[in-house]
Design a protein that fits this description.
This protein has helices spanning about 5-15, 30-40, 55-70, 70-75, 110-120, 125-150, 160-165, 195-200, 250-255, 310-320, and strands spanning about 20-25, 45-50, 85-90, 95-105, 170-180, 200-210, 215-220, 225-230, 235, 245-250, 265-270, 275-280, 290, 310. It is of the alpha+beta class. It has a single domain, classed as B-lactam Antibiotic, Isopenicillin N Synthase, Chain (Jelly Rolls, Sandwich), CATH 2.60.120.330. The structure holds the ligand C=C1C[C@]23C[C@@]1(O)CC[C@H]2[C@@]12CC[C@H](O)[C@@](C)(C(=O)O1)[C@H]2[C@@H]3C(=O)O, 2-oxoglutaric acid and fe (ii) ion (FE2).
Length: about 350
């Protein structure tokens, strides 16, 4: 039997059908099949009818808007992001830059309450909005992770969700703001078409994969997110504030022994309007071991990755640049056979 390569499917399908949109309120056995297919083909899909109340999303969005509207001097009081807090243009610690400003937070309520003090004039209101949003989105992430386990016929359907449900989970939350770039200040004279095209595609957040298990991203009605197909083509993700984008992370690629692909993506600050994204990164506790599930390893599909802790992977990620491939550093060598 010829097993179709997931990477081949990725380019052919995107051209033919567009990116997958999955209705979470649909028939469970059908939904889980669609999710597995999307993770194999793209490492990306959108979900609609996810059940997160509009009010929870609107409250979080308003807190983000209120923060980014503040004068630069006030926003700086919530930074630098070492690793949590406000950042502008610098991403991580290794020289990556983008046309973005952001708030990076740990999802632990104690950490949120601490960070809130420098972020908002009403820290309790800010913390409540963030905690409610994170709680609701974590539930969606867990539901999706359980559907993934069921779709893969793994007997323990909580095998993935238990990692991010753990009280010690190292999950993060990030608000990204891509300011409008074609303001009058950008121009000495009227822009020519090539200038406009260049200005229209400045990089907001450079190409990368997310290191975690699963990312749940929601943006306002302004486009900018793109995902990469294996043939190097960038596919724009149409904005939909009522939907969540689901992004497979590196840890999920390892847990599934490469069956699900962590997708490379980027965000362009390409609009006359500001874009804001709210991003939940579901991660295991620092001490958790990540290795391919036994059910994902067969004589035909031998184990690709060596076991490592989330702390070890995170350390590697933070020592590398945004666009670097980190999983290469965790593949099994021939002489690792005896630990299989
Ligand atoms: C350049 C970097 C920023 C990042 C840490 C890293 O060294 C490499 C991974 C980057 C990333 C991408 C996804 C998330 O936005 C993020 C918070 C994460 O966990 O890994 C960022 C890191 C960051 O901005 O600190
Ligand atoms: O803002 C976006 O759409 C993408 C952001 C992103 O990929 C990230 O924060 O890791
Ligand atoms: Fe990302």
């Amino acid at each position: 039997m010829v097993v179709p390569s997931p990477t081949k499917n990725r380019s052919v399908k995107a051209r033919a059908t567009g990116l997958p949109i999955i209705d979470l309120s649909g028939d469970r056995s059908h939904v889980r099949e669609l999710i597995v297919e999307a993770c194999e083909d793209y490492g990306f899909f959108k979900v609609i009818n996810h059940g997160v109340p509009k009010e929870i999303i609107a409250r979080m969005e308003q807190e983000g808007v209120d923060f980014f509207e503040k004068p630069a001097s006030k926003k700086k009081q919530a930074g630098p992001p070492n690793p949590f807090g406000y950042g502008s243009k610098n991403i991580g610690f290794n020289g990556d830059m983008g046309e973005v400003e952001y708030l990076l937070l740990h999802t632990n309520p104690v950490s949120i309450s601490q960070s809130s003090k420098t972020i908002s004039n009403d820290p309790t209101k800010f913390s409540c909005a963030v905690n409610d949003y994170i709680e609701a989105v974590r539930e969606v992430a867990c539901e999706i992770l359980e559907l993934m386990a069921e779709g893969l016929w793994v007997p323990d359907k909580t095998v993935f969700s238990s990692l991010i449900r753990d009280v010690d989970s190292d999950s993060l939350f990030r608000l990204n703001h891509y300011p409008p770039i074609n303001t009058c200040n950008d121009w000495d004279t009227s822009p020519s078409l090539p200038q406009l095209q260049f200005q229209n595609s400045r990089l907001g957040f450079g190409e990368h994969s997310d290191p975690q298990v699963l990312t749940i991203l929601r943006s306002n009605n302004v486009g900018g997110l793109q995902i990469s197909l294996d043939n190097g083509v960038w596919v724009p993700v149409p904005p939909d504030p009522t939907a969540f984008c689901v992004i497979v992370g590196d840890a999920m690629q390892v847990l599934t022994n490469g069956r699900f692909m962590s997708v490379r993506h980027r965000a362009l600050a390409n609009s006359f309007m500001g874009r804001m994204s709210m991003v939940y990164f579901g991660a295991p506790p620092l001490h958790a071991w990540i290795s391919p599930l036994p059910e994902m390893v067969t004589p035909q599909k031998p184990c690709i990755y060596r076991p490592f802790t989330w702390a070890e992977y995170k350390k590697a990620a933070y020592s590398l640049q945004l666009g670097d491939n980190r999983l290469n550093h965790f593949t099994r060598r021939a002489d690792d056979d005896d630990i299989a």
